[in-house]
Amino acid sequence: MRTLNLCILRGGPGRPAAYQTYRITVDEHLNILDAVQKVWATQDPTLLFRHACHHASCGLCGVRVNGRERLMCLTPIAEFPDGATVTLEPLRNFPWVGDLVVDVKPLMERMAAIQAPYVRRDELTAGGEEGTRFEDCIECGLCMSACPVVGSDSAYLGPSPLAMIKRLLEEPRGRDIRSLCLLAGDAHGAWRCHSVMECVEVCPSHVDPSQAIGWLRRYLILRGRRQPAEAQRR
Amino acid sequence: MWIWQALSGILLTVLLVVHMVANHFVVEGGLRTYADVIHYLSNPVIFLLETVFLMVVTAHALMGVRAIILDLGISPAADRRLKAALFALGTLIVVYAVWLTGSAVLRA
Amino acid sequence: MERSLPYRPVSEHVARTPWWRRAAAWADLHGRREGWLAFILMRLTGIGLVFYLFLHLTVLSTLARGPQAWDAFIALARSPLFVAFDGVLIFGMLYHGLNGLRVILLGLGVGSRRQAELFWGAFVLSIVLTAVAVRMILMMG
Fold it and tell me: Which residue on chain B is closest to C15 by alpha carbon?
């Protein structure tokens, strides 16, 4: 067992922001998410946080652990010595809902605008609501939180949407290539990136948005503004 | 614009080395006196090279300024005004420097 | 030339934040690693070099004021404080140039898994070359 002091940023719009520390003892084989859940279950049911799968596929539990963007479910308790203080704060660059929860609307809106909605229309089975997308990006928003340009240019597409555009250009499956090229090719698209590389470092799913942005730039330079019509039908 | 910044940057690394070597190592002990500098600049090839260097430096610097301002997300109209202002400033810098060195050389 | 863009979402909460607070966030090093350090140093050296360009042209204007003004400046340029300024300037130019090459590679999708090593390489090489340059300035007197 291991005892940690979880120092969590509480508050939100209309509520004062303040750090609150919870002392919690958990099995060292578990992750920070389990510790936060135990705090919620045994000490403070008003604590706001998001989670679902516990195995890094839903992308809901992204927070900043000691300042660094991470998924709580991928942050082992064993990483911290007994009695350590671990600071948990909400992601940057998203509207703050409260405590550890942010509104991921800016990311989801961008994904929809680049024709990669959370559940694609063409993937809806008759009467069902299941959608499957075999991409590495889990849309957790860690890269959007770690990128300086996302926080300063309100129209910047951001690392994961640009990485998704690269994926869609590789395999368009009927998408409108021209608008993807226009979105990626203007001043708020791939050219706005400054290779700060934090997106690559924080991604829990090995997406490498930086490499994807470089791919997009090479694609845009080589193809020019020509519309690759032959790719449309694939 | 990223591509222009990259290309001018590569060109600058070459031109900067030429500028430094020509100013500090070709003449023994480097250009020191007024006469040294005027003699150096009165070579038309050098004058042309220095002018090209200045133009590339100015373009690279002002594109960098624009990149920082664009990072803060400005409207297309504001960006057009910014581009015009930076272009005017860049032209002013190059014209002033060429006039400055050119007139000093001609006077000598 | 205006090209009609498809619908592009805008982060309203970012657009509502005053620009100086957004720019100040670039200096927030909490929880950041090499890539951010490279970025903020790139930005600071870049801004510094823009100011130096204007300073350099101001100094050149002494050429127009004849030999006395120029030689007075050269005497000033030999003072220890000025050599220290030269050192900072040379480091700024070297770092901006070397990291610029790193950014070009990374920006075209090359070497992203080695970006931290590339940063430390550019940083250490800048310091070493600055030391060599300052030594040369002092030896030339």
Answer: B73
User: pLDDT tens digits for B21-76?
Assistant: 888 887 776 777 888 888 888 889 999 999 999 999 999 999 999 999 999 988 88
Do the chains contact at B9 and C97, CB–CB below 8 Å?
A: yes
The CATH number of B2-107, from 1.25.40, 1.20.1300, 1.10.3470, 3.30.70, is 1.20.1300
Q: Provide the shortest C-alpha distance from residue B72 to chain C (in Å).
A: 6
C25 part of a folded domain: no
Protein fold of A2-102: Ubiquitin-like (UB roll) (3.10.20)
Chains that touch C (3 or more CB pairs under 8 A): A, B
Q: State the nearest Cα–Cα gap between B11 and chain A, in angstroms.
A: 19
| Contact residues for A41 (Cβ-Cβ < 8 A; gap 6+) | none
Q: What is the DSSP string of C58-75?
A: HHHHHHHT-HHHHHHHHH
What is d(CA A179, CA A182) in angstroms, rounded to the nearest whole number? 5
What is the ipTM, given to two decimal places? Answer: 0.90
Q: Which residues of chain C have pLDDT under 70?
A: 1-4, 141
